[in-house]
Amino acid sequence: MTAPTVTAPRIDAVFDLDALLSDEEREWRDRARRFAQERILPVIEQDFEDKHFRKELVREAGELGFLGMHLAGYGCAGASAVSYGLVCLELEAADSGWRTFVSVQGSLAMSSIHKYGSEEQKQRWLPGMATGELIGCFALTEPQGGSDPAAMTTVARRDGDGWVLDGAKRWIGLASLADVAVVWARVEDPSGAYGQGAHAIRGFLVPTSTPGFTATPIDGKLAMRASVQCDITFEGVRLDADAILPGASGLSGPFGCLNEARYGIVWGAMGAARSCLEAALERSVTREVFGKPIGANQLIQAKLADMFLEVEKGVLLALHLGRLKERGALTPAQISVGKLNSVREALQIAHEARAILAGDGITDAWPVMRHAANLEAVRTYEGTDEIHQLILGRALTGLNAF
């Protein structure tokens, strides 16, 4: 059966990205574009207004192969890094919350289990997470701040043959919907068998039905309103000995997964930017002032050209990073280049688009203010601008300013 036609962005006619992609990569992109256009865009403005996450779409995303798609085995698609990036771009062109969902489920929770879990843990959780029957979350950030995970206060104490978990986490995506939480905690183990010093930080798989686990959605958000972020408390949460992720020791464990999520943001933020540019372009040729479309004015064309330039530069950077990732050559500093650039430029594009839309730009008749609000959140999570600047500063100078 012939796949439904998807509407391609007008800017594709100027910049031929397709020539740089394989047939498989284009197929993944078009699949995500159809999902975004048919299932997310018709309802996203109302969902944003209502602070509603459509959980019923999770299994559809699983059926389409988006969940953990960059992982191999256990029901995962084993897709290329570029294919995954293109899916992130198309989902975030609809709304950052849906790219965030795919990132939390696949790049954070599933990647943690896939990278560091035992074979039994992988078999228990990954197939159901790949289909969307099970939802996971990744609990690292704590209430006092997320930029210094080495200072975490959540503690797992050895107790007989198992563990007891106490502490709190904040801004944890999907936690109130999740079946399993990947929780990072500092271990207290008199035997020293589970690490000392910095290596005392370990990951645990916590079924969210475990007594003492409480996830509370954070209200009052002015961004990411169509997705779920939570506070979590752990009060005497008892875990079996096999709850620990055997392959992760120290901060390299969570950082290995954070870099997977940051890579998705490099692509995703350019999706939000493209959506804002498309809105500005449409408005520039349909709104008439002083007897002609505003797009016939040099100042508007200059703004559109600059916005287009940054979208295409950002996508080309993302593509370059994706090819490096596929060769196993992508470094954390290179990911920081992409995350810092994509979000910073996407926000600037959103602001320029809002100006072109004039007063109507602040209404939900256009997606620009929603994208701008969401991008403010994206700018903060998975490393603030300042954190990525320091990562790059360290790479350039060899000196650690943290």
From TrEMBL:
Domain Acyl-CoA dehydrogenase/oxidase N-terminal: 22-133
InterPro entries the record matches: Acyl-CoA_DH_CS, Acyl-CoA_Oxase/DH_mid-dom, Acyl-CoA_Oxase/DH_mid-dom_sf, AcylCo_DH-like_C, AcylCo_DH/oxidase_C, AcylCoA_DH/ox_N, AcylCoA_DH/ox_N_sf, AcylCoA_DH/oxidase_NM_dom_sf
EC number annotated for this UniProt entry: 1.3.8.6
Domain Acyl-CoA oxidase/dehydrogenase middle: 137-237
SUPFAM superfamilies registered for this protein in UniProt: Acyl-CoA dehydrogenase C-terminal domain-like, Acyl-CoA dehydrogenase NM domain-like
Annotated GO MF terms: fatty-acyl-CoA binding; flavin adenine dinucleotide binding; glutaryl-CoA dehydrogenase activity
Organism for this UniProt entry: Agromyces tardus
GO biological process, one term: fatty acid beta-oxidation using acyl-CoA dehydrogenase
Domain Acyl-CoA dehydrogenase/oxidase C-terminal: 256-396
Assigned keywords, A-Z: FAD, Flavoprotein, Oxidoreductase, Transit peptide
Cofactor(s) of this protein: FAD
The protein's name in its UniProt record: glutaryl-CoA dehydrogenase (ETF)
Enzyme class, broadest EC rank: oxidoreductase
Family: Belongs to the acyl-CoA dehydrogenase family.
Pathway(s) served: Amino-acid metabolism; tryptophan metabolism; Amino-acid metabolism; lysine degradation
Reactions listed under catalytic activity: glutaryl-CoA + oxidized [electron-transfer flavoprotein] + 2 H(+) = (2E)-butenoyl-CoA + reduced [electron-transfer flavoprotein] + CO2
